[in-house]
Amino acid sequence: MTTTLSQRLSAELAGLRDSGLLIRPRVLEAPQRARTHVGGVDVINLASNNYLGFADHPALKEKAAAYLREWGAGAGAVRTIAGTLRIHEDFEEQLAAFKHTGSALVLQSGFTTNQGVLGTLLQPGDLVVSDELNHASIIDGLRLTKATKKIFKHADPADLGRVLSENETDGLKLVVTDGVFSMDGDIAPLDRLVEVARKYGAVTYVDDAHGSGVLGEAGRGTVHHFGLQDSEDVIQVGTLSKAWGVVGGYAAGHADLRELLINRARPYLFSTGHPPAVVGALSAALDLVQQEPEFMERLWANTRFFKAELARLGFDTMGSETPITPVLFGETGAAFEASQRLLHQGVFAVGLGFPTVPRGLARIRNIVTAEHTRDDLDQALAAYERVGREMGVIGG
């Protein structure tokens, strides 16, 4: 008998419920800030990617409103037909100058950027070597290509060299890595990875979603952090939705990269351009991070304080090097229970378990921001201490 739609939906949802993996997103009832409202309660927000506090910043809202009034509510078409406004290209020039690259192109999201760029660059006969912990958008983007796909051990230049040495090709060789890994908060050893890639004639592709606005001079990202910003054999992609507080994705690199993507990247070719208000807010974000270094200074001061205090209390933060600060609870049920207990104490921090992270490594992922005050962090740490002692994660 043919499966009905109702049967399929019911069976899939039942499977998720039975395995404890059914997601029911929390709904924020106030703007995305260091403090927000969830379930009618004022909470300290440790769950967002709003690193610099830009999502509700007056400068972004003001420029978004100005672009809305001048340019309208929408782009009205895909970029290649009639949807490229002057402000789109102005922002892309601003972004390329910020990244110190020959060109930049903005796409609809970080996820679609990986699909579009990887799908454009890689052809049959090419070799792509990907870090085993790369983001899902990279994995899905690679699935759409017909290149030969290989994996190297996480952040391991020696293993990258082994894989490249064992897989010769006359086609393009591409090494793909996150700049900052979103679950563990560690930084890719990009200087050593690029050195190995160059030894074997490979191009390095860096997804800097969690590095842009966080690392490098004025938040220029992981590539700049390692002094590789002038390298034509390094491609940078990322999001405009985390530190920049808005939405979108970008690709920045070789001067010809932009033109090829305009002609071949399917998400770009078949999606409407960003609304003017989005472009205005993004432009304001890039201006703000360069004009006011205090945002990054506060972000890192808060990060150092929060990590040090968690360690003092006895929590395992899994070697994180960035504002992404996981707290290890082990089993999925324990991480989810801790998240619920923290929420009852006024701290919004989300538990992550298998299959998002490996079995036995369930954690709560915290992200402090430039907007958090010391009082916010003290209250959050006090809540963590109470919950950790109640659950036996730290000593009593």
TrEMBL record:
Cofactor dependence is on: pyridoxal 5'-phosphate
Q: Which InterPro entries match?
A: Aminotrans_II_pyridoxalP_BS (IPR001917), Aminotransferase_I/II_large (IPR004839), AON_synthase_class-II (IPR050087), AONS_Archaea/Firmicutes (IPR010962), PyrdxlP-dep_Trfase (IPR015424), PyrdxlP-dep_Trfase_major (IPR015421), PyrdxlP-dep_Trfase_small (IPR015422)
- Say which family it is in: Belongs to the class-II pyridoxal-phosphate-dependent aminotransferase family.
Positions of the Aminotransferase class I/classII large domain:
42-382
Concerning NCBIfam families, the annotation shows: gly_Cac_T_rel, PRK06939.1
Q: How does it assemble?
A: Homodimer.
SUPFAM superfamilies from the UniProt entry: PLP-dependent transferases (SSF53383)
Q: Name one GO molecular function term.
A: pyridoxal phosphate binding
Classify the source by domain of life: Bacteria
Ordered alphabetically, the record's keywords are: Ligase, Pyridoxal phosphate, Transferase
This protein is called 2-amino-3-ketobutyrate coenzyme A ligase
One Pfam family linked to the record? Aminotran_1_2
Q: Identify the Gene3D superfamilies for this entry.
A: Aspartate Aminotransferase, domain 1, Type I PLP-dependent aspartate aminotransferase-like (Major domain)
Q: Does the keyword Transferase apply?
A: yes
